Structures are given as structure tokens and as C-alpha cells.
Amino acid sequence: MRRFTVYDSRTREVRLFAPLHPPRVGMYVCGLTPYAAAHVGHARTFVFFDVVARALRRWGYRLFYVQNVTNLDDKLIARAAEEGTDPLALAERHFAEYRAAMEELGVTSVNYYPFATDYVPEIVAQVRVLVDRGFAYRAPDGSVYFSVAKFPKFGELSGQNVAALRPGARLELDADKRSPEDFVIWKAATPGEPAWESPWGPGRPGWHVEDTAITERLLGARYDLHGGGIDLIFPHHEAEIALSESATGEAPSVNYWMHGGALRLAGEKMSKSLGNVLPLSEALEAFGPGPVRLFLTNVQYRGPLEFDRERSLPEAREAYDRLRLPYDRFSALLAQAGAAGAGREPPEELAAQATSLVERLDTTLAADFDTRGAVALLFGWVRRLAEPGVELDGLSAPALELLRSPLDWAREVLGLFAEGGAASGSDEAPGIEVALAARARARGRGDFAEADRIRAELAHRGIEVEDRSDGPRWRRVPVG
Ligand SMILES: [Zn+2]
Fold first, then answer.
1. Residues spanned by CATH 3.40.50.620 within the chain?
2. pLDDT, tens digit, 9 for 90 and up, residues 299-320
């Protein structure tokens, strides 16, 4: 297992990672509240933690990655009422769209997406423990609140103290709370909303407790990594610590807290409530997954990322093509070299550089997931390959594979060059790329009959080709 460091938001320092039960690692990332379509701001968080997951698996850790789905909350209930539909069905629909977009983006590392309402028995059990131990109380209206005063460490993660929170909290008029900073963990039922029976009367889970009930059930009282967007530190993650550690009596519940920076549009966080969002499906339709992933990973993950509607993705596409074209060229040359048999060996110096670069890519990422540093190394490699005197034609297949290995690293860890969906990474992908290159050349010289013949031949093999503004894409479809 490769050693790596991670910036822990709770201790505010870069720490060497040590799993609780090596080689196993439990990771939990706060997922979507699917009350509307996912936007590019969401993708920033989920692509980043996808890279973390890919890296951990590459480095020999046995990762179990859980991302919850908050499929019931006030926003879902309000939106469903506007649309005259059921909130759980609305969440289901948006989640299905989200999964499809994540699949297209290559975010395939999540092991399990638990839905909050599937964990109501665990939530009720945890609330009951908190009430029994005196950390929580039932208010006159039938809701249950966590008593923040009972958890002296509250505020440690965000660096706030409870007294400072009070003036703001007091604005929130709520006669049922004993203290203004207390937060709800079980909401008394309102007529017409989904509700479950509980010892405190019918109701539904509060927000923070769904995470802590799910993590206790799936990852245990203590686990390795918890991730999410930086805006979740307060109050959400602060509340999670208070609930978990009060319910189980074990601390710290989370060994490393990781928070990804926000995506900002004109200086403001991209968020549905601000109405300044670019839907993820639109970005994928216009630019494809590679440029979107490159844009989101070519940045220090903890800082803000400015999104410019006019420039960000077009520039990312240009940059992406500088990486993808050599990758595609290697694939095409490999297909030829496989057929031709023996070939030349590369210059020794170049071969050594490829080998050491893969190691440098790993060590760069192992320093608190420096994705931007890794991307810079990849561009350096592509420039090196384009230098005069580097001749790729005629190289043997093992030589081509060696020189391509830094780009293969980018595919495996950063998730680049995965266009082609489910079939990507299969042995037949290079063959398809060769056929597509031949088709592009035929179109280029105006031989549309030949281009159509190649397309029909691919269709016969169950490969559907779609021409997009940034080049052809292929995907596997049922033959029939
Ligand atoms: Zn959460």
C-alpha cells in the first residue's frame, strides 16, 4: 500500500494516512439531495472523490465507498408540492438522471448509494439512544432535538464556539427548542407528508442524523474518511460529529475529514438556491466527459474554482485534446503494431522517463491529492513526445505501451480518455478507435461511401457512432 498524506479539516493539518483496519478503508461522502437536476458544482465534488477512490484502489487499499442520497427533506417536499407529485418519486427520478450523468462522467467508484428513507429503523434506533442517554429531548410538538449544550466539543470542526452561534440562531423563532442552537433529528409529521411511526409519534428523519445512522450501520462507530463540499462543514458535519460520538461513545467517529472547494460563478458559489447553475447534462452534451473532468481536476481541490461560462469548458476542451490526441494515436499505433509483429525499441532515455514519470504521478497525487500537479506532469509528457527526434511510428507494441503508460495512469486515476462508456477499457477499444480514425480520414477526403461503410460495419458489431461537435463518440448497443 502506498503511503499518502491528506489535509484533515478537523485538525487543520496535513496528516499521513493510516487506516483503522488495513488494507480496508471506509469512505463516506455526502451525496445529493435530488430535488432538481445535478449541476457542474455537484460534479466538482463527486469527480474529486472519484479520483480519491480510484487512487486508493490503485495504491492497494480495499476501499468501501458509500455516498448517501437524501431522498426526503423540506426542499423535496416543497418542490414535489409545486409539481403535484410525490417527493420520494421526485427524488427517485432526479437520482436516476444523476446516476446516468455520473456514469457518463466516469464516476463509477461508489460501492453503494443508500437512500435515507431505507434507513428509518436505524435512524429511529439512533435517536432513541440519544434520547435515552440525555443528549436529545422530545419537544411538545412531537419533534426530537439534539441538545448542543450536552456536547462540549461542538464547534471544533468549524472553529466556531457555541456562544457565537447564538445571536444568529435566535432569529430562528422556534418555541419548541430548549436552546436556539439545538437542531432537529426527528421531525413531527405534517399532514400530507411521508411519515413513519416512532416512539415520539409519527414523523420523518432530520437531516444530519440520516448520515450518522447510515455510517454507524455500514462503516461502524469509527471509520477512516468522510468527504463533502466545504459548505457542509457547518452545521452539517459539526452536527454529524456530535450525533455519532454521543450515540456511540466513541471518538473520533471520523479519522480524516476532507472537504472540496466550491465551484464559483462570477464570484458566487454555484448553487440551485442562487439560481446560477449550469446543469451537468448540458455541459456533458456540449463538451463530453473528458473536458469536464479535466476542468474539474486541473485545480487544487480545496480552493475555489472559478467557472466562466464563455471560457472554462471551451478552454478545457482544447487542453483535453492536447492530451487525448496522443492517447488516441498510441491506441491506433498499437493496433497496427499488434498486426505487424516486431518493431523498434524506443530510445533508452525516453523509456526511462516514462517509467519514472508514472512513479512521479503517484507521488504527486499521494501528497494530499495534488491533481493539478499531476495534470501539469501529463502536459509535460505530451510536450516531450512532440519534441523533434521522437518518432513513434514503427515502435514495437511493448515500447508503445511503455510510452503511453503516463497517459494510462491519467485514464485509470483521473478518469480521462474514457469516452465510449461501458466498453471503455476493453480490449476492443483500440480497434474501434482505429476504425473511427479511418472513417474520419474517409470523410476528410470526401469519400462518404467509405465512411458510411465503416459506420455500418461498426453497427453490425453493436457499436453505435455518434458525431458530436468535438468528434465522434461510440457506445455499445444491443445488436438486432
Ligand atoms: Zn450529509
1. 5-307
2. 999 999 999 988 999 999 999 9
